[in-house]
Structure formats: structure tokens, C-alpha cells
Amino acid sequence: MKIRLIIIIICIALMLTVVSIIESFNHSRTDEPKRADAIIMLGGGDQGRMQKAAELYHEGYSEYVIISPAMDEHYAQSKQFALDLGIPEAAIIEEEDATSTYTNATETLAIMEDRGFESALVVTSDYHLKRSKLIHDRINKNHYDGKFELTYIAALSADGEPWHEQTYAKNIWFREYVKLWGYRLGLYHFIDIPDDTDAH
């Protein structure tokens, strides 16, 4: 009887593992953009994220772009790059304290609270969208009673490639698989690592 129970448990564990691996390849389910109080551009990745944020700004989806974090030493997430893409200085809100996807969420939602914003388009790379949605929705629910309306927009790479066509696709998949499970288990502080291109 004990052997049968052990076999059943092992089979269930293997099945769940296979399902989670298959599910992990679907990173980039993007929402349809709609008018919002702010566009939140999450730092990390390449220039594709800011390019997408600028595209949404110029299409009139919002009057403000929050850069999280804004870093002069990383052109892809700098205020200067936003200006070069035609986003006016008055529209740029710089958040400078985030060090990870988790703190992206805590810092940007705090800015929304301070400024009285009610909605935002959260822009990040396609491979990063699922984890970003998980943590922003969790912080929104647990700390703000879910009052913010958040829409999640996937950005392709600066070359217009989806994540699975990029040369480092395997690294992207493995890193996001591990981090996503860490975030699901609430281990934010143990994997509080900057999400930049060097980590791919």
C-alpha cells in the first residue's frame, strides 16, 4: 500500500512538473492597450521596452511615462533615451530605487498612489510579462485593495524579435522559469537581482 502511494505521489509530481514546464514557454500573452493615467516602463532588457513605451505615448494612450528605474548609465532605461524617442521631459517620471521586478512593482505603485493615478499600462519585454503581471497584481491586491487598473503590454526586442527567436532564448527561458517559481513562492528578497541584459 505504501509503495503504491509513493508511486502515485511521484507520478503526480512528474505530471505537475511537465505541465509547469510546458506552461513556462507561454510568456508573452499581452493585453490590448487602452487609455491610462500612466505608462510604466520596466527597466532591464534592451531598448525594445522604451521603444514600446514611446510608441504607446505617441499613440495617445497616456500623458505620463514612469521609468523604473531610470538610470543614466544604462541608455535603454535612461531619461535621455526617452527624450530621444520624442517623449517630452514634462511627461517623464523617474523612479530611481527599484532593483528588481518586485521593487519595480512596489515603487511604481507607490508613485501611482502619491500622484492619484488610477490606471497604468505596464510595459516590459515579452519574456518578462508573466512575472511582472504576477507581482504587480499581488502588490496591487495586498497593499492597495486592487484599486489600480493595470494593463500589461509586451515589448519585442529592439530588433523586433520575440524572445524565443533570440540567440539567448534558452537562457531567457531558464532564468524566467526559476524566477517565476521564486516569485510564486514569495521569495522576492532571495532573488532580488537586477533584471538587465547582462543576466540573460
From TrEMBL:
Residues 37-178 form the DUF218 domain. One of its GO terms (cellular component) is plasma membrane. It comes from the Bacteria. This is Uncharacterized SAM-binding protein YcdF, DUF218 family.
